[in-house]
């Protein structure tokens, strides 16, 4: 298995991602850029999400502004309570996250949900000092995670950069319900940037200030939580379920979750199953993943049920998705805060009600990291990225065997044109071995090599990334053969 | 031709876009959200840009952080000079953009580039007063367009939200040059959000605080500005050229621009032609567009050549794209500001040099608006959006003739499955006439209707959006017929 350092070294070497603005010495921590291959893979992750989650359940995808007025976050509760406990050195003013500092330096695990007094007492009790200068640590206080944006000139409204994309969905729900002629249950989704003022951004993509979320909010009538006609299609989907009161996860089907009343209703099992299928399509194997049931202590006070989707990684279990039954908390808050009616009519009972929400909140950058780590392979001879073909940043590479022989280069360009729809890479630099190595490293599923025989008999060598197997193929059949190879490399539907 | 109000009414009625967070009374101006159809169209505009500009010239696409440290904007010049001239009422403190106020209320045209003193004198001379309270207007001063983001807790670096996406490209150039084994000329592109503190955001998508750009920066050796091997492919592309010293635009080919030395070199003509082709694929006809040559007064001091791509609209000529020959200004500034070597080696002359930049900066939201307005059609009977099929938010709709007849609805679902790859809309509500009207309004190119004959003979009615022509087609041939229709409706390549 790959280490965190393996992945980061690869990422930096091939510019999958790298620290933003880093030609400047004082560039702040917590901001990353995706290079060309990273951008392509990130885009493919989003496309799969659209295909396997949004399109299958006819969700609406929107794209709302990142900047939102203060009132939104008063209603959502973020302004009052979205804050981390910090302690500051009284001498050198270094700042630490109190719960993390305590967890790192004691035997116990501390949580941000503990009160400031409790955490302050623990700092004193454990005699913790400033790691930099040995100074005393001040009392624990809260530091808001909200990032303020200084917009407006004349009439100023206090604005913040959203800390999660879903607030735009909640604010737009009533408008979309009306103009899109919605019938519940209805999912509304968006992918985009969100911002959180982390005290100590770290581990590259895993904890950033500016990051990507893919969020889906399914609005439904709680009375109808078991009316999901399409459930049969996913009933047998296997999930690795870690119950709150059990030591070990256990493989169960979506159907079992419903029958054993482990979930609040069919709708929940339906979306857990679709989420599992999406993650499997990313190359994250069932046995390396788990849905971890959150107990009451871990859930937000309004949440009725919660499952963290986690994946094994070199830095421990990594949370990629928060699946939460948020009840009517969000719409209720915005209805009260805005004075706008956010109820809908239950045509059967003729009652007005505030829809409930099932949330699937995916951390896109973390998922990207996990996909890289799980695709990372090495043996004595080489390193290769066994990405599902649908995620590969380039699908095929074309090599002229010798780059100083014009007829070979010309023929390679011809083959490149044959494969135009696959946007093939033409690489002419270095030995064939080096070119294979470079293409394995970024996960290109297939390489096509043109040699002197090609000029005679119109055949080329096709080499597969995962097996390094090579076979001779007529150019005429290349497209067909590549389709087969790409399907075998877990391709799902880019070419369909 | 459609009016601005026509387009906005349609946009709001069908939620193409709408003001963000507007359930809150104090939501700030200048922020818009894209609803489901708007999101789909916006996405298709980006995909076309990738296909017709980026892939054809092997550009690298990146995705850098929105937040950047102050030093970046010291080097780029934004901190010192990216500001609008404003005047404030001394009585009620209302703020105005001085150049606009003067242009609106006098016979002359004033520009933001004029000095504060000049503009102040003009205010006095023209006896302009506050439009709200009649109070006197104070001296003109500059108001920065930069949006500050309050990030960081402990070690704070002053940060801004980028006012243009290209600064990330300039900062990452050296890293990408090395890790991506770049040979110049090489384009690097990105699409994403940018932020500008407009004094008076207005006209919905046309002047926002938070907006989308698609920018491409082509780095090249100025010595090689005429070495573009692929130019032949676009030599005959027609452009509507508005020279700075002429009254009227004139159709010219890209080849003529080179021969008559109207542009600095072949590379410029090449990218102008590709840009024209992209815009044509958006349904913006050649005769409604122009490349307007900027004279020295209009260009930035460092720019050697500039062409604004403008399109006719109900609010006048609308600038969609800034095409600029930025010389080595950007990299030189960042090299000086960061102390990082941004030169590259000219292998032929063995000299180090700072690459020059040709920029294609597309305002995505404005382009979106222009595409809607140009696709807007109405006659006595109906309103329809004649979007190129590649941009249509849905490609096909499926209607059961009567929605209360289960066999028809079942058959419609069957047909929907046949067309799965096209993600067809199933609409069962209201009369067939109303359903056609709804689908015309959002630009669905084809509707397929299932009636009682379908149950007998497995044929359906296919209706085209632009002509309203209907014909009877066997379900078996549906896919083939739809492909033809979609091609005819200017489809470019989604299904290839």
Largest interface: A-B, 83 and 83 residues
Residue fraction in strands of chain A: 25-35%
Radius of gyration of chain A: 26 Å
Helix count of chain A, per DSSP?
15
Structure described in brief:
Chain A folds into 3 domains: 4-78 and 148-375, Bira Bifunctional Protein, Domain 2 (BirA Bifunctional Protein, domain 2, 2-Layer Sandwich); 83-144, Herpes Virus-1, CATH 3.30.40; 383-495, 3-Layer(aba) Sandwich (Rossmann fold).
Word description of this protein:
The structure is a homodimer of 496-residue chains. The first copy, chain A, is of the alpha+beta class and 496 residues long. The first copy, chain A, folds into three domains: 4-78 and 148-375, BirA Bifunctional Protein, domain 2, CATH 3.30.930.10; 83-144, Herpes Virus-1 (2-Layer Sandwich); 383-495, Anticodon-binding domain (Rossmann fold, 3-Layer(aba) Sandwich), CATH 3.40.50. Helix content of chain A is 31%, strand content 25%. Chain A has 15 helices and 26 strands. In chain A, strands 3-10-11-19-16-15-14-12-13 form a nine-stranded mixed beta sheet, with helices on both faces. In chain A, strands 23-22-24-25-26 form a five-stranded mixed beta sheet, with helices on both faces. A three-stranded antiparallel beta sheet of chain A has the order 4-9-8. In chain A, a hairpin with a 6-residue loop joins strand 5 (83-88) and strand 6. Chain A starts with a helix and ends in an 8-residue tail after the last helix. Residues 490-496 of chain A have low confidence and may be disordered. Chains A and B meet through strand 2, helix 2, strand 3, strand 4 and strand 8 of A and strand 2, helix 2, strand 3, strand 4 and strand 8 of B.
């Amino acid at each position: 298995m790959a280490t965190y350092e393996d992945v980061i070294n690869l990422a930096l070497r091939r510019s999958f991602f790298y620290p933003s603005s880093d030609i400047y010495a004082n560039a702040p921590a917590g901001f990353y850029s995706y290079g060309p291959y990273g951008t392509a893979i990130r885009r493919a992750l989003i496309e799969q999400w659209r295909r396997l989650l949004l399109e299958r359940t006819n969700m609406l995808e929107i794209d709302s502004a990142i900047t939102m007025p203060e009132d939104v976050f008063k209603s959502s509760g973020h302004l009052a309570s979205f804050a981390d406990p910090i302690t500051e050195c009284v001498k050198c003013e270094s700042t630490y996250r109190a719960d993390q500092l305590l967890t790192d330096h004691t035997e116990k695990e501390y949580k941000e949900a503990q009160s400031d007094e409790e955490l302050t007492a623990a700092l004193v009790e454990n005699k913790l000092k400033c790691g930099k200068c040995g100074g005393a640590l001040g009392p624990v206080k809260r530091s808001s995670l909200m990032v303020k944006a200084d917009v407006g000139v004349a009439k100023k409204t206090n604005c913040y950069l959203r800390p999660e994309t879903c607030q735009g969905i909640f604010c737009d729900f009533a408008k979309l319900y009306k103009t899109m002629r919605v019938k519940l249950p209805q999912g509304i989704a968006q992918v985009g940037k969100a911002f959180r003022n982390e005290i100590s951004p770290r581990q590259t993509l895993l904890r950033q200030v500016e990051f990507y979320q893919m969020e889906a909010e399914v609005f439904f009538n709680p009375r109808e939580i078991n009316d999901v006609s399409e459930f049969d299609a996913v009933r047998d989907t296997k999930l690795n379920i870690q119950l709150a009161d059990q030591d070990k996860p256990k493989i169960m089907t979506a159907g079992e979750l419903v029958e054993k009343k482990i979930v609040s209703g069919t709708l929940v099992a339906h979306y857990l199953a679709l989420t599992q299928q999406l993650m499997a399509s990313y190359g994250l194997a069932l046995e390396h993943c788990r849905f971890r049931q959150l107990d009451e202590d871990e859930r937000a006070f309004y949440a009725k049920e919660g499952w963290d989707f986690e994946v094994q990684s070199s830095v421990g279990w990594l949370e990629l998705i928060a699946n939460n039954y948020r009840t009517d908390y969000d719409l209720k808050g915005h209805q009260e805060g805005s004075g706008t009616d956010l109820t809908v009519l239950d045509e059967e009972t003729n009652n007005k009600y505030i829809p409930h929400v099932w949330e699937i909140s995916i951390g896109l950058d973390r998922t990207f990291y996990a996909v890289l780590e799980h695709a990372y392979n090495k043996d004595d001879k080489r390193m290769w990225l066994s990405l599902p073909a649908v995620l590969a940043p380039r699908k095929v590479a074309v090599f002229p065997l010798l780059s100083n022989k014009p007829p070979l280069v010309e023929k390679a360009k011809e083959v490149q044109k044959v494969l135009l729809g696959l946007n093939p890479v033409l690489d002419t630099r270095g030995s064939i071995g080096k070119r294979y190595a470079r293409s394995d490293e970024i996960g290109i599923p297939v390489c096509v090599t043109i040699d002197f025989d090609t000029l005679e008999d119109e055949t080329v060598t096709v080499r597969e990334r995962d097996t390094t197997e090579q076979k001779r193929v007529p150019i005429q059949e290349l497209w067909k053969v590549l389709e087969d190879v790409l399907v075998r490399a877990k391709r799902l539907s880019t070419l369909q």
